[in-house]
Amino acid sequence: MRLTGSGLGCPTWPDCAPGSLIPVAGQVEGFHKFIEFGNRLLTFVVFGVALALLIVAIGHKKRKIIVWSSLPVIGTILQAILGGITVLTGLNPFTVMAHFLLSIVLVAISVKIHDYFNNGKNLNALSTLVDNYIKAITFIGFVVIVLGTITTGAGPHSGDEIASRFDLDIRVIAWLHADSVLLFLGLLIGLRIISQVDAKSKQLKQTANALLLISIIQGVIGYSQWFANLPWLLVSFHVLGAVITWIWIVKLSLFSENSFLKRLK
To answer: I need a surface site. Which of 80, 157, 200, 248 has the fewest CB within 10 A?
Structure first.
């Protein structure tokens, strides 16, 4: 929605146009109304999948997996409400940022649930050094994501011409984001070296290698979009890359014995 300028394609909520839940002929928003309305319809698809997951989890009759599987259902409802608030506030960058970060949380929960249904990780205990290193990488990875959303919120892709932006120097924020990425990559290289010497898990090495490769590609896209003056297509690839990177960060975090997400058993 942000990249196509369709964030206010339906200028109100829950209606798409005043007095109508669906787009109406003559709306000044033009084709943008169909893009935004399509986005709203996808919410029902996501909710249906989340509800189906919860039903499957109930069949397992284990309290923890039922509780965790209820979170995507609740989260999707919250996303719909937060999306409505975002529209009603004219795409305020704070609500847009919160909208994306809630999605990131739901992605993490979904990765953990997927891991549970695939019997989880069957691993040898990691050393304290590697375990703590993974925690640090997970934390810095989340910081990278947050700084990325702030950078986007200060950039040119507001989702609509009238939407406000963060009153921040985008160059400074972009530099901070880039520096956090370099720190993240450095930690990943360190993990690759440490795991080669210390860790007993082949899966951990494979996950660390995959995350490092994905992060390098994501970094190349990030620098490319910046020097190309933030074209919407490259920005869209960068957003997609952020989600993929986060999925693999969560996968890596599951190797930590004391990870919050690891406690689902």
So the answer is: 200
Q: Is 118 exposed, middle or buried (0-12, 13-18, 19+ CB in 10 A)?
A: exposed
d(CA 170, CA 158): 13
pTM across the whole model: 0.88
User: Are the C-beta atoms of 216 and 247 separated by less than 8 Å?
Assistant: no
- Give the CA radius of gyration of the chain: 20
Domain ranges of the chain: 1-120, 123-265
- Measured CA to CA, the distance from residue 236 to residue 190 in angstroms comes to 30
pLDDT > 70 fraction of the chain, expressed in percent and rounded? 86
**CA-based nearest residue to 13, from 73, 75, 81:** 81
The confidence band for 103, taking pLDDT boundaries of 50, 70 and 90, is very high
pLDDT reported for residue 152: 85
Can you tell me the distance from the alpha carbon of 125 to that of 146, in angstroms, rounded to the nearest whole number?
31
Query: Are 140 and 261 spatial neighbours (Cβ–Cβ below 8 Å)?
Result: no
Residues 108, 250 contacting (CB under 8 angstroms): yes
pLDDT of 247 higher than 70: yes
Three-state DSSP class for residue 165 = coil
